User: What shape does this take?
Amino acid sequence: MTVVPGQKGTAGIEEVPDPGAQDGALLVRGMAVGICGTDREIAEGGYGTPPSGEARLVIGHESLGEVLEAPAGSGFAPGDLVVGIVRRPDPVPCPACAAGEWDMCRTDGFGERGIVRLHGYGSEHWRVEPDFAVPILPRLGELGVLLEPASVLAKAWDQVDQISRRAFFLRGRALVTGAGPIGLMACLLGAQRGYEMHVVDLARAGPKRDLVEDLGARYHSGDAADVDVDVDVVIECTGLGAVGRSAGRQLASGGIMCLTGIMNLGPTLDVDATTLNRNMVLHNQVLFGTVNAGRRHWEQAAGALAAADPGWLGALITRRVPLTSWTDALDRQPEDIKVVVDLTA
Ligand code: BGC
Assistant: This one.
């Protein structure tokens, strides 16, 4: 699965050489790749960087595969299901990368497989370093492809947990904006923590509502401005400024708001910085942004998937596309939640 970053309409399929040993000691048979908004943005020419000296990028950062070759002592064996971590440290390295916290890289000198400077996992065979591979329970099977989006939310919630320990905090209610794969994962992880979960999304009925309600959470259909509950945590997953602003108004004193969605470059959002300041200062609120996930978040995410209802996780995968026509996965369809490319078909 390749694309020329920066050039719209170049996503396609091509033969590339087998991965070389420099890509990692584990040789993996690719099984599935999940498609997300970042992949669509790369295919549209708006994001992504090829490896140095190359024009094309093998895309795909939400991976799942089966180990074919693993050196003794690597902790992996042929037949294991495995997911590849996305980010690699800044080679220089920056102080955060040197400390092993490459998800907090301070320089943008990091690599991200399938996104920035490193080929991704959208191929029939790929390699990965054992330290950047996460084992998947055999019983999860195909559901392992959900580990990458889950890792991003595991990091978001891990930070909420850490920030919440700064002072008195009530683990009461949380509001998630958007019921796509990221919002649904945010809801799952919040429900697992015992929060009373609320999710707002424009969709009226259908699978998103059902999936939210199956978690015991309350679904609010329509405008975020109409949500009428006070919450201790907001996890913003739409990347829409107006939605985030409305959700932020529901934040209680001492509340924590996490931004995971990335706003498209376009007309600038008119933010009333004075009101924002007064609300945040006078109510001890925290607003933070988060991206990517460190090794511990991948492990937390693996625990969260293992604890979730496999039927619920399975319902997130609403469409499967064979490798030969993978670009169909880039076209959004109304019933889509998570679209997965089947690398074996
Ligand atoms: C990926 C992250 C990545 C981010 C920015 C997201 O879609 O899930 O791993 O850090 O894009 O490149």
Summary: The chain has nine helices and 18 strands. Residues 147-164 form the longest helix (18 residues). The first strand starts at residue 2 and ends at 3. The chain has a mean pLDDT of 96.
